[in-house]
Amino acid sequence: MARQVKSRMSPDVSEDEVNTRPSRPPKPLKATAQVAERVSSERFEELYATCATNAHEADGGDGAALFLKGSMAEHSCRPTAFKQIRAGSGSVPQGETRLVVHALRDLDVGEAISISYIPEYYPTWLRQSMLQHGFNFQCGCERCLSGGAELCCCFVCPECEGPCCPPGAVYEEGAYELLRCEDCGLELHDTELLGALKRAERCEEFATTMSGKLHPYHFKIFHMYLKHLDQVPAGTALQILPQLQEAFHRLRPVEKGHPLHAQLAQCAAECWEKVEDEEQEAGAGSVALGIVGER
Ligand SMILES: [Zn+2]
Ligand SMILES: [Zn+2]
């Protein structure tokens, strides 16, 4: 049975903070008076559309930049690469901004280089909605079309407390009539219970019964923990970190270079430094090394 750290909602975390929000495309570009004088409104609209479609967030979200080659990386919900914007740091000279694309695995010659425009740990219906509303396209990537189990919509099995997920892709919020337990194989189609789980997923029963119904692998628990990791005591964060790592690994094979992995590893190292209790420190060390040293 998969290891399970019980999710417990902190009462001071509001429902609003748990609800996920779509990431946004780069901020609109504004023409200076000088540009407006020289460019017709049609041409400006065309330029704006080109920028809005192809620009990457830069300056920590305060700006946008266009990169000729970088614009050619397509989106995938299971990408083969990730990007980094570097400005005047490392090998990038002062005053220059570069987009660096790192492959997440060995790529074949001619294979498409894809990056994810949104965080990957979301169910199909939410990823599609974020891409449609934030980037104006319908995602037809291999993950969206494969119809595999909806691993991010994960509930607590009423029989064994294992992870219970819809066995196929879900294209609309709450549109599942069946859940299957990964541990005991239970098939759950009790309408009343499914209704209660759907309400818990929408956080309608927040802080009362929801935490007993959503499995730690559920995307709302995942993102709530990820967002608040730096606000919980180091010892607690070290208990949560392997759970986040385990949840994410269900989506894709272990990739040491993935940015999320780097984020978790950094957080583990910081927590290790913070814990003071000797016994806790030994445990913290093994968690941190487990994440940092993973291959
Ligand atoms: Zn997709
Ligand atoms: Zn079960």
Describe the structure.
The chain has 295 residues and is an alpha+beta fold. The protein folds into 3 domains: 33-111, no CATH class; 121-219, no CATH class; 232-292, no CATH class. Helices cover 38% and strands 12% of the residues. It is built from 11 helices and 10 strands. It has helices spanning 15-18, 33-38, 41-54, 124-135, 142-146, 191-201, 210-213, 219-228, 234-249, 259-274, 278-292, and strands at residues 56-58, 63-65, 74-75, 81-87, 97-103, 114-115, 155-156, 163-165, 179-181, 187-188. A 4-stranded antiparallel sheet has the order 7-8-9-10. Strands 1-2 form a two-stranded antiparallel ribbon. Helix 9 runs parallel beside helix 11 and helix 10 runs antiparallel to helix 11. The chain is globular, with a radius of gyration of 21 Å. One zinc ion binds at residues 157, 159-160, 162, 181, 183-184, 186.
What's the quick description here?
With 295 residues, the protein is an alpha+beta fold.
Helices and strands in order:
Elements: H1 15-18, H2 33-38, H3 41-54, E1 56-58, E2 63-65, E3 74-75, E4 81-87, E5 97-103, E6 114-115, H4 124-135, H5 142-146, E7 155-156, E8 163-165, E9 179-181, E10 187-188, H6 191-201, H7 210-213, H8 219-228, H9 234-249, H10 259-274, H11 278-292
Parallel strand pairs: 3-6
Antiparallel strand pairs: 1-2, 4-5, 7-8, 8-9, 9-10
Helix pairs in contact: 9-10, 9-11, 10-11
Bound molecules: zinc ion (2 copies).
One zinc ion is lined by residues 77, 127, 139, 141, 143-144.
Domain SET: 53-117
Region (Disordered): 1-33
Protein name: Selenocysteine insertion sequence-binding protein 2
